[in-house]
Amino acid sequence: MSIRKTANGRWQATERLGGRGSRRVSRTFDRKGDAQVWVDQMRRQRHLGQAPVEDVTLAEFMETYWELHAVPNLAASTRASYKAIWVKHIHPRLGGRNLRELTPKIVTRFRADLEKAGVGVATVRKALALLQSILTFAVVEERVDFNAASAVRKPRYQRAREPVIFLPGDVEAIRNRLSQSGPERSQRDATLISVLAYAGPRPEEALRLTWADVGTEALHFVDTKRHQERWTPLLAPLVADLREWQLASGRPGPKAPVFPAHDGGHWQLDDYRNWRKRTWRAVAPEATRPRDLRSSFITLRVYEGIPLTTIARECGTSTAMIDRHYAGILNNWDGRRVPAEDQIRAARDAPVPVRREG
To answer: Taking residues 157-169, what's their average pLDDT?
Structure first.
């Protein structure tokens, strides 16, 4: 057992895992007093006949976390997001630290370092969430006694922009532009627009749909935010769109993606980014996102008189979010209940404006 001051001014305590010639385990501390506390703990374990616990770095444990927790339990999109945050933000700052060295104080300074570097609030929150998830699994694996990240508050997230409200007329205008532009997969894209606008999923949820998820009364989604299943009612106009697309696709099997990529499989992140850049931006209003189409479904259901608790459950969100970001829709609703299907049919029956070239 030894304690020494390192070149960077920190204190390193070292212990052998067994007798002479055995492997050593060491930890570094900001203060000599903390190193002495660890030494005393090791001595007590030795006196009680307990073997000292070998420590590992956060980077070493990340491999275990990834294999035993991330791969079996997290969606591919979540793993991709976590991997990017780990590589860019967590590993350079904390990867070399031992697990038992991570304290709320160190995690607090990690958050402050990210904010000082100009990292966005959403990314800081995700980084802290990933670190908390790793340390939670470290507790399960009996590597640490408590989760140091759980004691550190995440910065409050403020939405950078309010969602753009799409009404059925706006949605149908986009679908009409797609049909007029004549791209090879225009029917697929028009059906995707219908699903996003008239069922309210997040884009990544819609793109994971298989034909087995399309029921007679509802669509089955896997919530990418809460990692839960949910079912959204199938409106009659959307049923018709999906049926036409299924026939045009050659009646694919139940496991086939509803919206296949160029290789017949599910879209990857690059596929979605390319579609958003090349297709969406060509037919949709400027400064809007495919994700904004969720507003159409929420608005339809509000005008139907559906309770916010039901709408929130169907969209995989909270009533507080709907109340906060759709206050204008809620406040301007005159109380008349109009079935969502009637609203969509009225938009489809309206005259289609002719696009003039030049």
So the answer is: 76
